[in-house]
Specification:
It is a single chain. The chain has a single domain, classed as Peptide deformylase (Peptide Deformylase, Alpha-Beta Complex), CATH 3.90.45. The protein has a five-stranded antiparallel β-sheet. It has 187 residues and is an alpha+beta fold. It has three helices and seven strands. Bound molecules: zinc ion.
């Protein structure tokens, strides 16, 4: 089936949606389950993809553009026109591995801040795609990390909440114009 949500992978000078940044309360509100997967939602998905590509991101969650819906778009190969984007609607985690790994993360809502985060190495999720079809996905490496990062956004959590090294975190945030007060460390 040709993907209706396909957009051209290019940088627009004026992306259709506005991003919200760390410190904005919008990022802290939990997202609601989506009950209607229709053309209106697919238009939002398209605009989220255009915004993500324009900002050089590989993932974007709806709360980052001020929409409190359980919706995520991702594309780990934004420079590869043949790689289709991944759309996650109402994703739920089925299983995570006991194995934990550390890697650097960044976020479109916290530009230029890249810090190490510990996360389970693999994750299994279920979700619906942009046509409402139920899916499951077992992911590792960057995909697993990206899924967990974006799913955190649906719960009002940003990756800096998971950074252990608070001294480095405070320095990096202030260097880039963000306040450490905006961090809400996860227990
Ligand atoms: Zn993010």
């Amino acid at each position: 089936m040709p993907s209706e949500i396909a957009v051209e992978k290019k940088k627009l000078k004026n992306p259709p949606l506005e991003l919200h940044y760390l410190g904005d309360r919008v990022l802290r509100q939990p997202a609601k389950r989506i009950t209607k997967i229709d053309d209106e939602l697919r238009q939002l998905i398209r605009e989220m993809l255009q915004t993500m590509y324009s900002k050089d991101g590989i993932g974007l969650a709806a709360p980052q553009v001020g929409v409190h819906k359980q919706l995520i778009v991702m594309d780990l190969e934004p420079d590869n026109p043949a790689n289709p984007p991944l759309v996650l609607i109402n994703p739920t985690i089925k299983q995570v591995s006991k194995e934990i790994c550390v890697a650097q993360e960044g976020c479109l809502s916290i530009p230029n801040v890249y810090l190490d985060v510990k996360r389970p190495e693999t994750v299994e999720i279920s979700y619906k795609d942009e046509y409402g079809r139920p899916k499951t996905l077992k992911a590792n490496d960057l995909l697993a990390r990206c899924i967990q990062h974006e799913m955190d956004h649906l719960n009002g959590v940003v990756f800096v909440d998971r950074v252990d090294n608070s001294l480095t975190l405070a320095q990096e945030l202030s260097k880039n114009g963000f306040s450490y007060q905006a961090v809400k460390p996860v227990a």
